[in-house]
Amino acid sequence: MKRSRIQLSPSRRALFLVLPSNPRERGAARLPAGDVLRALGVRRALQPHGVRRADPDRRRAARAGHGRAARGVRPARSDLHADLGRPELREAIAATYDRVTDEHVLAFAGAEEAMFWALQELTGPGDHAVVTVPNYQSMETLVLRTGADVDGLVLAPEDGWALDLDALAARLRPETTLVAVNFPNNPTGAVADRATFIALAELCDEHGIRLFSDEVYRGLELDPARTLPQAADLSERAVSLNVMSKAYGLPGLRIGWLACRDRALLERLERRKHYTSICNAGPSEHLATIALRTGSGSAPATGRSSPPTCPSSPSSSPAGPSTSSGSPRRAAASASRAC
């Protein structure tokens, strides 16, 4: 019976792991020498053959610099943190918050990828979550997918789609790990009362519960005075979700982000991101940075640099559903067209 073998490449820079099934085609996997040596523990045995451990980042930078220098081209800056989002983008995003810095921002390929990983990181089997209903569907179904038990907190139309904090508190359990909310709400357009939203963040902190706040429609309130503070500014543990698709009107860029002052959480999410997008397109991040920097002027109550908002009109109602203009969905659609 033939066994797998390791074959040193002619350049002595890589090893071939040759499998007996088909040594010349499928079975031959070209692997970096350092990875194979670490895995097999044979680095010392192969040192006489000129194989040594290399720093891959340093090697790539050296190759790039040597090649460009030979052509008389200035070496380009090596950005080893593109998977976090370019520094300029994260700085521009952080400027839309009051207490968030660029270290507290993680960029994603749209809001859906951010939500996909965040909700799976924050819940799991045996956990309990409370999610406002109605909502963007994946905010509920992703939590269910993790094996967590989910309670829906219904925003009732007869109550003006208001967030009932007492009803939410009554649903909390010792195993509750997450409260997920969505304001301005999709699909109703309702906005929670400011005092209630601040009290929600405090309630979650008191119970050691993570608050996940879907804020992708923030900036489209019919009455800018109703704009809520962002969850990541209210609590160090809270997670704020946003995207360039809604208030900025740039869905084609596919740039979303999470803001959270818990850096350990962002580091875990960044590792999860390596299994999906890895990093965003450079041109998209550049254009998103321009849009964020040139948004409407500062607004102390809503962040240092807030997204463009809908202009008020004599016939427009405050944020939230209108009882005189038909369904909330139709009212929200007309508001979006007005922008």
Overall pLDDT score: 79
What's the structural domain tally?
Answer: 2
What spatial order of strands do you see in the largest sheet? Answer: 4-10-9-8-7-5-6
State the CATH architecture of the largest domain. Answer: 3-Layer(aba) Sandwich
Q: Any low-confidence stretches, pLDDT <50, length ≥5?
A: 22-28, 42-47, 296-302, 309-339
Q: Quickly give the structural class.
A: alpha/beta
Percent helix range: 25-40%
Which quaternary structure do these chains form?
single chain
CATH fold topology of the largest domain:
Aspartate Aminotransferase, domain 2
Distance between the termini: 72 Å
**What is the succession of H and E elements?**
EEEHHHHEHEHEHEHEHEEHHH
Strand portion, in percent? 15-25%
Rg, rounded, reads: 25 Å
Helix count equals 12
Structural overview:
The chain has 339 residues and is an alpha/beta fold. It folds into two domains: 78 residues, no CATH class; 212 residues, Aspartate Aminotransferase, domain 2 (3-Layer(aba) Sandwich), CATH 3.40.640. Helices cover 34% and strands 15% of the residues. It has a seven-stranded mixed beta sheet with strand order 4-10-9-8-7-5-6, sandwiched between helices. The longest helix is centred in the N-terminal third of the chain and has 15 residues. The protein is globular. 36% of the residues are buried.
